[in-house]
Amino acid sequence: MPLVTPLSPDHDETTKELADFFNETLGFCPNSVLTMQRRPAISRAFINLNKAVMANEGRVTSALKRMIAWVSSNATGCRYCQAHAIRAAERYGAEQEQLDNIWEYRTHPAFSEAERAALDFSLQASQVPNGVDAEIKERLYIYWNEGEIVEMLGVISLFGYLNRWNDSMGTSIEDGAVESGEQYLGKHGWEEGKHNGSQY
């Protein structure tokens, strides 16, 4: 069981609107948001930040943003967010070869050098202590402008919040996210862990 029980997607009109928004993006409303909805100001702020961070304003595609989220969540160990990020990458147009080989992004030919620089940035920015250094900065500036780097760090930071939220909460993972996690991450040992709803 999670630390706090998520509200039902039909709890009230505002919660139904949240559920409708996420049904379009993920195919279901995340239990994380349904837990935040116990304090509606938090869920509203999260949704607005999520929309701003995931908006496309440059060359950082929706698919790349979700792969950045996956690398960040993988670095922090949040199984819930790993599955959500890979599902969202799939739904937002990541190439099948990239989805199948995300663990090998540094060497697999499905990833460009620009994508590798972005994903390495995500990995280093998500570690504690933070691993962003002059070499990461230099690689980023070869391929990306400052606005695009801000977009990337927005994704990394958003998922830093979500990784803390969901791992501490033990948020129960939804069936759709489990399917994506098993399909793309299972061969590397991904499992639901505390997010299967029976660990607490």
UniProtKB/TrEMBL annotation:
Residues 40-120 form the Carboxymuconolactone decarboxylase-like domain. Signal peptide: none annotated. It holds the Pfam family CMD. Coiled coil: none annotated. InterPro entries: AhpD-like, CMD-like. This is Carboxymuconolactone decarboxylase family protein. It comes from Patiriisocius hiemis.
